[in-house]
Write a structure and sequence with these properties.
- This protein has about 375 residues and is α+β, with helices and mostly antiparallel strands.
- It has 2 domains: about 160 residues, FAD/NAD(P)-binding domain (3-Layer(bba) Sandwich), CATH 3.50.50.60; about 160 residues, 2-Layer Sandwich (D-Amino Acid Oxidase, Chain A, domain 2).
- Helix content is about 30%, strand content about 30%.
- The strands form 4 sheets. Strands 1, 2, 9, 10, 11, 12, 20 and 21 form an 8-stranded mixed beta sheet that branches. Strands 13, 15, 16, 17, 18 and 19 form a 6-stranded antiparallel beta sheet that branches. Strands 6-7-5-14 form a 4-stranded mixed beta sheet, with helices on one face.
- A hairpin with a 3-residue loop joins β11 and β12.
- The longest helix is centred in the first third of the chain and has 20 residues.
- The two termini are about 20 Å apart.
- The relative contact order is 0.20.
Amino acid sequence: MHIDGIIIGGGIVGLALAEQLMERFPNFEFALFEENPYPGECSSSRNSGVLHSGIYYKKNSLKHLHCLRGRELWDSLANKYKIPIKKCGKILFANGPEEIAKLEALKENGVNNQVPELSWADEQLITEVSDYVNVDRALVCGSTGIIDLAGAIRAISQAVYNKNIPILLDNKVKGLSKSLGKFEIQTTNENFTSNFVFNCAGRNSLEIRNLLGLTDLSEKLVKGHYLKYSGNYYREKLLYPMPLKSLKGLGIHTCLDFEGNVLFGPDAQERTDASFRMEEKDIREMKEYVLQTYKGIDPDKLAMDYCGIRNKIIKAEKLFEDFWVGDPSSTGIKGYFEFCGIESPGFTSAPSLAEELCIKLDAYL
């Protein structure tokens, strides 16, 4: 069977791309392949649900630019598809001279990145927050929000269905090659040919590109756990500590969901496999950190909730700290586009990444 364009991966990036492709290219036929029984079953549904502000990232990096644009686009998508979003804001807290210096540098970076709604917390807010964390100075990021992950995945999936793009579940891509100007795709269920391939396969994106002979990237897996707290705690805004070194993680922060729950996470544990199995040692260490960092926590009300895997890109034996976005001009393969290493702020950035690819495709045609 021949299809004009095939999207590999039904996470939020693949879904956002499918949603935009059909609107921009209505005369083309597209299909989306997802190896799992449900869309968004891996990384997309296993993160904090935070719509990020863009404060952390290097100016003009893909993470910076797509985070800001993606945050804007999610507001439009939320209105269009009735996706629950709450603009709660977050508080970055610092304790002691060293952390305050880091916080001031973050504020400067945020201003340079044109992150909206940044302000120093006043004494009243610091006093309020000091019941929950040790804080000498704090920065408020008013544009940060939370999104209903499951609701967003469900709504975008339905929009894709409504645009007559089939989402072929339980369809893992086993083979991918190019012959006589067309891609040949073998899945667990059927074989296809296509003019275009869009690699949005998340953790499997490197496996897909390897099938085409693109072997210059490798990956590092980082596992993040989330603890749910059943007691009463601060729910007005998200609470964030100073980020970890080299952006390995943003630190264990509070998360809020749309059922009123408070969660803590994620931690950052390097792994060699992508198992979602939760080890008792990791949970114990995470609980210890939460109890040391956050005040008034009843340890008996902290329980393991879920975990996720973030894949980071290694290029030339060095950590590649940005998103990896490839197209025919960079890969040398006509009709092939790829997204790799779409870790945080990947969910926030997804609509913007999709938008940019559609612009590239339009110029390419």
